[in-house]
Design brief:
This protein has eleven helices and no strands. It is mainly alpha-helical and about 220 residues long. It has two domains: about 100 residues, Helix-hairpin-Helix base-excision DNA repair enzymes (C-terminal) (Endonuclease Iii, domain 2, Orthogonal Bundle); about 100 residues, Endonuclease III, domain 1 (Orthogonal Bundle).
């Protein structure tokens, strides 16, 4: 895919959703961090159900730490891998208190040093909480990047590197949210909704099903 086509893709995504946001519910960088830790192999909806009650009683690191392991589990036990996630949330809270005065650090190295925080989680926090132009590649972004031809790669890290390289600078900050939402609701795994896709004429997916008149209905780039 050439640079002009990539730019048109993001121009259309921006036009359709000028200010994209995460569907995880949070009020502080700490709450975002906890929500993202919990979101691994879980839906945003299930995480929001868990954090709704968790953050009511423990909205910050000190109160999470005071809640303890079993107290955290009581709120998140319907989420997959809840035992491991509860330990990570507890230990991350303790480390934030001990090493960062209870604040979420804004550096990648410090974030990735926290329990349960890998590159993807760090990218989400850096982008959403601190406004950095990072792109966290989840299953949705990996699929969309490969299927459309936007940034093909065999691994998550390869796709991330290519996206950072090819996404126009002016769109990089919001690219993460646009691509996730597009993959979640339009470019779905089993049956992509090509008939509803605003990128259908730009997409290089060989299996897409659409009609040329669909492209004619799109607004000019």
């Amino acid at each position: 895919m050439n640079a002009d086509r990539r730019k048109k893709i993001f121009k259309r995504l921006q036009r359709a959703n000028p200010t994209p946001v995460t569907e995880l519910r949070y009020e502080t960088p700490f709450q975002l961090l906890v929500a993202v830790i919990l979101s691994a192999q879980a839906t945003d909806r299930s995480v929001n159900e868990a954090t709704r009650t968790l953050f009511e009683v423990a909205p910050d690191p000190s109160r999470i730490a005071a809640l303890g392991l079993e107290g955290i589990k009581a709120h998140i036990r319907h989420i997959g891998l809840f035992n491991t996630k509860a330990r990570n949330v507890l230990e991350t809270s303790r480390q934030l208190l001990a090493l960062h005065s209870g604040q979420v650090p804004g550096s990648r190295a410090a974030l990735e040093a926290l329990p349960g925080v890998g590159r993807k989680t760090a990218n989400v926090v850096l982008n959403t909480a601190f406004g950095e132009p990072t792109i966290a590649v989840d299953t949705h972004i990996f699929r969309v990047a490969n299927r459309t031809g936007l940034a093909a790669g065999n691994t998550v890290s390869a796709v991330e590197r290519k996206l950072i390289k090819v996404v126009p600078v002016e769109y990089r900050k919001n690219a993460h949210h646009w691509l996730i939402l597009h993959g979640r609701y339009v470019c779905t795994a089993r049956r992509p909704k090509c008939g509803q896709c605003i990128l259908v004429d730009l997409c290089e997916y060989r299996g897409k099903v659409w009609h040329p008149c669909q492209a004619e209905s799109l607004q000019p780039d």
